[in-house]
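Risk mitigation, structural track. In case the binding assays with PBG fail to produce interpretable data, a predicted complex structure has been prepared as a fallback.
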Amino acid sequence: MLFPDYRPRRLRQNEAFRRMMRETLLAVDDLILPLFAIEGQGVKNPVPSMPGTYQLSIDNLLKISKTAYELGIPAIMLFGIPYKKDPLGTSAYAKDGIVQKATRALKKKLPDLLVITDVCLCQYTDHGHCGIMDGPIIDNDATLDLLAQTALSHAKAGADMVAPSDMMDGRVAEIRNILDENSCSHIPIMSYAAKYCSAFYGPFRDAADSAPKSGDRKTYQMDPANALEAVREVTMDVEEGADIIMVKPALAYLDIIYRIREEIDLPIAAYNVSGEYAMIKAADKMGWLDGPKVMMESLIAIKRAGADMILTYFAMDAAKMLKR
Ligand code: PBG
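Fallback model:
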């Protein structure tokens, strides 16, 4: 088909045509809002590099979650900022840990809002790494049981789904086992399967107070240069029992989302991470970009690449725009 026989502009000439031709839809159903729970009462600490995002004590967490629920957002992803940190990250799997308490409160007040909990140790260890340390080394296998205990304690608190983000080898199987052995076979696992070692996580580490005190995460998170390795990681997590697989970050890794979509038939989640959010918010504030338009374009791009759902700090802003 060549011009002038075919004229692509025919089908773009007005909004009704454009609506009819639209291949990808973004819906509020696709959005998951990440939230940060902190100990205390009446706390709402703004995260400077993430305008509109806060560290929230449970009372305020409930308020914001209610607004999200009323906007139609189906799920939140919960991160915890504990009172105390130690080498083994014990508050991650404590019965009265911040995520466990927040989950119980959320499920009581908003039973129909899905609570997904981030399962990792980095916010809870004093060294800030996602696994426990043996000297300078992250001890993969010794970490697995602690991650499994963390996931189980979240499920016992009422979490609807657990999401391991640590990138230790073998953790999905370990978590699946412990859940199944403890009457939690109905709890799905959303695995951060292809999680890259990314500088785009910078603002999150301010929000969650989780930057490693020494070194970096290169021995467990993936090299941004690799794509085949993502296929291997994802395949392993599927075999270990993951129900949803995640690619993270999203915008600089749309090729990975696309590729995983071709290879795997499980639902795919993409994490539109803190740095991606911060860049758009900053450019909007400077008057250099139209923030809301760039937000919507970015989210539709993530879906077009093949994601079924998007974890994004924009969830509330996007839900409001979709409502209009
Ligand atoms: C914890 C975790 C991180 C993010 C989600 N879970 C940080 C990290 O791996 O350093 C990043 C999320 C974001 O940047 O929005 N392991």
